[in-house]
Amino acid sequence: MEIANLPIGFRFNPTDAELLYYLKKKVLSLPLPANVIPELEAFQFNPWDLPEISKQRSDFGEGGLNEKRFFFCKRKKNLMSKCSSCGYWKSSGKEKQIVAGESNHVIGMMKTFVFYQGRNMKTQWIMQEFTIAGHLKTPFLDQRLMMKVGNWVVCRLYQRVMRARNHGAAELGHSIAQTTPFIPMSPWSSSEITDISSSDLDE
Amino acid sequence: MEIANLPIGFRFNPTDAELLYYLKKKVLSLPLPANVIPELEAFQFNPWDLPEISKQRSDFGEGGLNEKRFFFCKRKKNLMSKCSSCGYWKSSGKEKQIVAGESNHVIGMMKTFVFYQGRNMKTQWIMQEFTIAGHLKTPFLDQRLMMKVGNWVVCRLYQRVMRARNHGAAELGHSIAQTTPFIPMSPWSSSEITDISSSDLDE
Hints:
2 copies of one chain form a homodimer. Chain A has about 200 residues and is of the alpha+beta class.
């Protein structure tokens, strides 16, 4: 299924475990449930310059800042590969274990990166890098070792949402309120409902 | 399209404007893009007792807390109707104007409610109530009045996400880390990748 065929309001918004499911298929070269995650060395781009290929378009705006985008990237250990022309991705916080469903199985690891513009200007851009975790039974130690496996990672890119009071749209709404007074009213008659057809909600 | 036919990772996760698009169709008795929002007097239920009808199931757990659910409810002005058997929904913050796309058109209003258990125990349950906003041209005043229209509202229910450090899953992950040491390693050979098949990622 392609993104273009989805009804309004539906989007690819996988949980961490679902994302690792796609990654496992990719690592094992098995068919993916949907062709929705492009291959791209996402860390080499400035986040705002990333090609539109994985953008989930909508005519309804508003969701732009919350939109999440996903990429398959080749797994690299080198932190130097996390630089773009305008800045760099700096890892943030501890690596997190992803646990499958209600079991105790660790199925992957997630590392979070924040984009810094120039030398040290922290931005709102966040990249989460997921890796599959495998287990290795050791004949010598009485325990199982866990390690990252596969030559691919999957990344989730998004912008941290600002609080409403600082948000441009909210301020815009406030200025509109000054010119068009708001009157809460009881349910409207059917003839008056047609008034809303002038809004941008029209197809 | 029914939810059950979607590939893994796809869900109904509309923006505010998209949700108002569904509501407008409902108010005007026009066909909806998808049969995904049930009619239910959601405010009369304890949030944890709400029927499973609008739950977007997944075999991958993990997303449970972040899951959003949607309901069409009859519009009521009466705050008393926002009580359930175990508590009540209290409005929180100012009503927010929803603006369509990049235009300045206010297409709806959003009111946020928090569920209080018993007399005053605040919970993590949040209900956002969306109403369509219409405009009325007044022959006497030199301005347009804005008002709520239609006999339906649409509600988005979710649980506020706890910070990772307080989150049960994160603590669980920590205890696992103590029993299964983690070793970051370079890309794995194909024979060793099969080790991950024991995880819960399997279909």
